[in-house]
C-alpha cells in the first residue's frame, strides 16, 4: 500500500498537470461526407465518398446538441486541440478525485470503521464498486 506521502506527491503532480491544461472546450470533432443529391454530380456514383470531408464541432449542453462547422486548417486544428485538452482535463480530474479518496482513507483519524458502522444499517443506494476497493484497501497501481 502507498504511504500518504506517496499519495500526496501523486496528487500534487496531478494538480500541476491540471494547471497546464490550456484552452479547453467540451465536445467532439466529427467528420462527415455528404451527397448533394444532384443526379449528374460525381457524388451520385455509389463509389464516390460524397462531398467532404466536413468537420463539425458537436457538443451536448443541457440535453441540447449544438453543432458548428469548422474550417479546415488553423480553426480545425485549434478546436481539435481544445477538445483533446478537455478530455485530458476530465481524465486528470477523475484521477485527482481517486487519489484524494485514497488519501482520505489512508489519513489517520479518518474513522473509516465508524463510518462503516454508521452506514451499514442503511440500504445502499447504488453499491459503488470504488467503495469496495477502497474499504478493501486494494489500491490501483
Ligand atoms: Zn454532389
Describe the protein's architecture and organization.
The chain is of the alpha+beta class and 141 residues long. It has one domain (4-135). The protein is 45% helix and 18% strand. A three-stranded antiparallel β-sheet has the order 1-2-3, with helices on one face. A hairpin with a 2-residue loop joins strand 2 (51-61) and strand 3 (64-70). Helix 1 runs antiparallel to helix 2. The N and C termini lie close together (10 Å).
Report the order of strands and helices. HEEEHHH
Spans of at least 5 consecutive residues whose pLDDT stays below 50 are 130-139
Principal-axis shape: elongated
Overall structural class, as computed from helix and strand content, comes to alpha+beta
Instruction: Quote the beta fraction.
Output: 15-25%
Report the biggest beta sheet as strand number plus sense, adding barrel if it closes: 3 strands, antiparallel
Bound molecules: zinc ion
Describe the secondary-structure layout.
Layout: H1 4-19, E1 28-34, E2 51-61, E3 64-70, H2 74-106, H3 112-119, H4 129-135
Antiparallel strand pairs: 1-2, 2-3
Bound molecules: zinc ion (ZN).
Zinc ion (ZN) binds at residues 35-36, 38, 41, 43, 51.
Amino acid at each position: 500500500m502507498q504511504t500518504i506521502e506517496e499519495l500526496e506527491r501523486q496528487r500534487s503532480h496531478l494538480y500541476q498537470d491540471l494547471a497546464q491544461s490550456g484552452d479547453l472546450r467540451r465536445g467532439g470533432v466529427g467528420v462527415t461526407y455528404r451527397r448533394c443529391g444532384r443526379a449528374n454530380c460525381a457524388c451520385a456514383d455509389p463509389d464516390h465518398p460524397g462531398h467532404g470531408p466536413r468537420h463539425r464541432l458537436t457538443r451536448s449542453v443541457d440535453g441540447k446538441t449544438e453543432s458548428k462547422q469548422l474550417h479546415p486548417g488553423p480553426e480545425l486544428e485549434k478546436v481539435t486541440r481544445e477538445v483533446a485538452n478537455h478530455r485530458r482535463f476530465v481524465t486528470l480530474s477523475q484521477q485527482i478525485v481517486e487519489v484524494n479518496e485514497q488519501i482520505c482513507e489512508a489519513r489517520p483519524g479518518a474513522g473509516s470503521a465508524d463510518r462503516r458502522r454508521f452506514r451499514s444499517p442503511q440500504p445502499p443506494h447504488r453499491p459503488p464498486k470504488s467503495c469496495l476497493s477502497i474499504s478493501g484497501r486494494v489500491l490501483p497501481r
